[in-house]
C-alpha cells in the first residue's frame, strides 16, 4: 500500500466530524480555511457558524459593512484575515458575478488567498490535483521521509511543495489532502505523537533514526519587541447620571487597523499616576479631570506574534466635554481588539 493510500485509509477511519466536512461549497470551504489560519479548530468552529449565519452567501458577505465583519471576528486575532475576507468577497461578486473561482490559478487572484488556501479550495471542492502544504503537512512529510531542510526557507518551501505534489493520491485528491492535514493534526502531532499506533511507523525515517523530536527543522526566531501601552479610559456623566466615554478608531497599516480602542499613550517603560496626569492634562487635554485610578496593578501582557504588549488601564474620571462621546452601554457594538474586549468584561462602567 502506497503512502497516499495509507493516509487515505487512515482518514476514512479516523476523520473528525467537522461542520465543513463532506461539502463541496467553495464559499463555505473558503470561510473555514481563512478562519482556521493561525487558529485551533475548537476556537474557530463557533466563528464559522457565526459567519455562515450572518452571511449565508458570498453576496451577503460582500455587501456587509466592514465594521460588522470585524465585530464578528473579534477575538480571533490576525484581523487582516477579516479585511481580506471582505475584499475577496467583493472581488468575487463584482468581477465574477458571484461565482467562486474553481481553479488554483484563479483562486490565487483573490485577496488573502495564497498557495495553501488556493490548493485546499481547488482540491477539496473541485478535486484539482493541487497538493496542500500547511504546518501539519510539513511535519508529516519531514518525519516520514526524514527531510531536514528548514521548512521556513525558500528552498524548503519549494522542496516540500514539489514532494507533496509527487505523493498526491492518484484519483482522490480531495479526501487525501484533507487526510494528510488531519493526520498531522491528531496523529503525527508536534509533541508526543502516538508512533506505536501509526500506520506509517514501519517506513517512517524519523522514527527509525530517532528524529521525531527534531523534525521538521525551522531556522531563526523572530525577535520579540516589548511595548508599554497605557489606555486612558475617560468616564464622564451627564445630568441624568448616564456614563460616557471615548473610543478612537485605529488607522494605518497595523494589525488592529479600523478597530476601536480607548485613547492610548505608549510609553518607553512602566509609568505611574503622576506621569499619567501630566499626559492627560497636556497631550490629551481632558479638561475637568477629577480622579485617576489604575485598574490593574500588574501589567496585562498581551502576546502577539512579534511583540508583547505590557498594558495598563487608567480610569480617568471628570467633567469632560468630548467632541465625540459614546455611551458606555453602547461599547458592546464596537469592534475592538481582544485586549480591550477583555477589559470591558471585567470593568464595571
Describe the protein in words:
The protein is of the alpha+beta class and about 350 residues long. The protein contains 14 helices and 9 strands. It has helices at about 5-15, 25-35, 40-55, 60, 65-75, 80-95, 105, 115-125, 135-145, 155-165, 175-185, 205-210, 275-280, 340-345; strands spanning about 225-235, 245, 250, 260, 265, 290-295, 300-305, 305-320, 325. Strand 7 and strand 8 form a beta hairpin. Helix 1 (about 5-15) crosses helix 11 and helix 2 (about 25-35) packs across helix 3 (about 40-55).
Short description:
By secondary structure, this protein is an alpha+beta fold. Helix content is 41%, strand content 14%.
The named CATH superfamily of the largest domain: Hypothetical protein, domain 2
CATH topology of the largest domain: Endonuclease III, domain 1
Mind telling me the CATH class of the largest domain? Mainly Alpha
Mean pLDDT: 92
Which structural class do you get from the secondary structure elements?
alpha+beta
Query: Total strand count, please?
Result: 9
Q: What helical percentage do the residues reach?
A: 40-55%
> How many angstroms separate the termini?
64 Å
Low-confidence stretches: none
